[in-house]
Amino acid sequence: MVGRPEPSPGLLRRLDDMARAALPALATAFIMIMAAGPTGVPALVPAVVLPSVVFWSIARPGAMSPPAVFLLGLLQDLLTLAPLGSGIVTLLVAHGIAANWRRSLAQAGFLLAWLAFGGFAAGAAALGLLLTAALNWTLPPVAPALHQAVLTAGLYPLFALTLSRLHAMMLRAEETT
């Protein structure tokens, strides 16, 4: 009707909206905690957080906001015992680049997106190495950073498939309400 305001959404609708908005960051934090378990692969935590942050920064930038990325970076630093701030800066830079290239990355095919993500993984590993060197005043070995970049890029297809299906389910749920 013209001139009549729409009724405010009910409590359940607001709770559903908040849960849908918090899901990407909370799921990423949960995956990080699970990856920090006794796997024997120290690069697994950064390798699971970067694909998630980049994906949600492109698919739902409002749900993966800079404060959420900051908290995920802090959690990454605490879980990996990295110099405090290195994971935060790395994830915030990756988030910023992904958000700026959002339109072109969202329209890219899978192979092009995977190639672009390989650049994200290599850049994040290099930035993490440089920040660790600057914060520790010593040059760490390069091999672990290369391992982390390859592991992160290798895990991308699994994350892309899983997160794109989750995103499609979220979109369908939003269309029905």
Shape category: elongated
Tally of alpha and pi helices: 7
Q: Percent range for helical residues? A: over 70%
Q: What would you call the quaternary organization?
A: single chain
What is the C-alpha radius of gyration, as a whole number of Å? Answer: 18 Å
Strand content: under 5%
The N- and C-terminal alpha carbons lie at a distance of 19 Å
**Low-confidence regions:** none
Calculate the mean pLDDT score and round it.
89
Compute the number of strand runs. Answer: 0
Largest sheet: none
Give the H and E element order. Answer: HHHHHHH
Q: What structural class do you assign from the helix and strand content?
A: mainly alpha
Keywords:
177 residues; mainly alpha; 0% strand
